[in-house]
Amino acid sequence: MHKFIPFLFFSVGTMLCGSPVHADESRAPNIVVILADDAGWGDFSCVGNKTISTPAVDSLARDGALLEQFFVQPVCAPTRAEFLTGRYHDRSGVRGVTRGEERMSPEEQTIADVFKQAGYVTGCFGKWHNGTQWPYHPLARGFDTFYGFTEGHWGDYFNPPMQHNTIFQEGEGYITDDITTKAIGFFSDHVKRSAAKPVLCYVAFNTPHSPMCVPDADWSRFAERPLRQRGPDIKKENPVFTRAALAMVENLDENVGRILAAIDTAGVSRETVVVFFSDNGPNSPRWCGGMRGKKGSTDDGGTRSICCIRYPGQIASGVRLPQITGAIDLLPTLAGLTGVELNSPKPLDGIDLTGILKKETEEKSKPQKLGLKLAGRHIIASQRGRISIRTQRFRLDDKGHLYDMLTDIGQKRDISKERPEERERLKIIADDWQKDILDRIPQPDVERFPIGYAGAPLTELPARDGHGEGGVVHSGRAPNCSFFTDWKNTEDSLVWDVDVLNAGTYAAKIWYTCPAQDVGSTIQLTCGESRITTNVTPAWDPPLNTGEDRADRGSESYAKPFHVLSLGDIKLEVGKTQLRLSALHVPGASVADVRRVVLYPVVD
To answer: If we measure between CA atoms, which residue out of 316, 313, 351, 359 comes closest to residue 335?
Structure first.
């Protein structure tokens, strides 16, 4: 275990004094945003976790600013949408984490759009989770390069299936290490090739999200390590799961260290803004500083995240911001720190924190005005219709109870009767949010997925976006990384509700597995009046990755590698319809397991 070396912090008041050492102002600074997945506020040694050591993240807090009261949303996709847009996820149409509810409206301007228009080279690496098909894919949202996966979570962490731009390929090694290697290559290559063209590099890790797959070297440090701090209810905490999560966080921290070292090696540390945060609370009831709730909860434990921002020479070392801030603030703040003009077509919910982060401002009054604005703000958390309001001092939870967060971080004592005026004020905000925002979000009768969006090089239809008929089911209750299985007879079908946007001919492929004794089924792909048939061959029957987990996977699907089968070309007409995969002849006990259908437009 790494030795944790305590460091000193300074107040905002101290930070605002002194003479800055400015970075090279002849070029815009680079931006590297690092996002953890399901890491709780308490999973880092810089906030007091005594079981773990996270020296790289600690160094960001030491060498830059630590936002002490930083809030995100209870689950993954909503937080990512808020970071990308600077707007609450409810406004962008993100309603959930799967089956299309994670898709962010194409009308939203993303951080990649903003910085690409300002001359930046943009890259996204890791977990996207805001839509799979165009116009939701990261390459359609302002990113020049993408390496990772678009679904909500992944089921294979060693040599995982990944997507490089539009090519499906196998990753190299442990997934977090692989994502880091690709992100470093992108950053270093563009810094070397074009010193005058700045880089926006978004590194969206998918750990410590389950399944709890950890490399041997990282697990060996934790397998028998005593947990020096426990969750609020020891009976509900699984120590093995906690150790696996912390081992994954230490691995993640090592990769943060690799990224920081690459920035140093490129010689651009003082010209690079680095941000680190997580997307929601911990994915198990482990230690989180005494806060109530975990992932999925709208309480502090489910929505408070660590957040560090480092910009040498512009943000002083050891700054602490006690004001409430959130993921919605990152886009306007990064625009402010880099001097990029932000012309948003829609009003932002986030606040530009530049004036209170930097040592000096052009107008001395700006930090004071911003401080007053922050002190009077509130931040909204919403999850499946549950709304909670957080102010600097109070939280109105999603059941209407009021808590003083300065004296009761565990939300154990409802003070509604003592502060009825405050409860009523916050209740009005919550009720207005329900009436003006949530009640007006369109709820489609059928969640349809677009095929043939203009300019799209492909349309991927993963199993999670479809449904089975007859006996066909998803391989796991959590659909994001599932595949279709139990496809056994001619009455069964794999179905996707789609909206064909452009008529034309499309080359169709499926990713499948089939044991040798079942090979040879005749399958048919239909869409509207069009249909094509082929036979399932050759046999391809790799085992599931059942030996990789350190803790029980539960209802999540195991994974396996899939083989690609070309079905042929199919002609599609414009309109809302169903794309259906069925069997005409089944010689064995089953047809195939299917991970995805992919359609490629055929250019005449």
So the answer is: 351
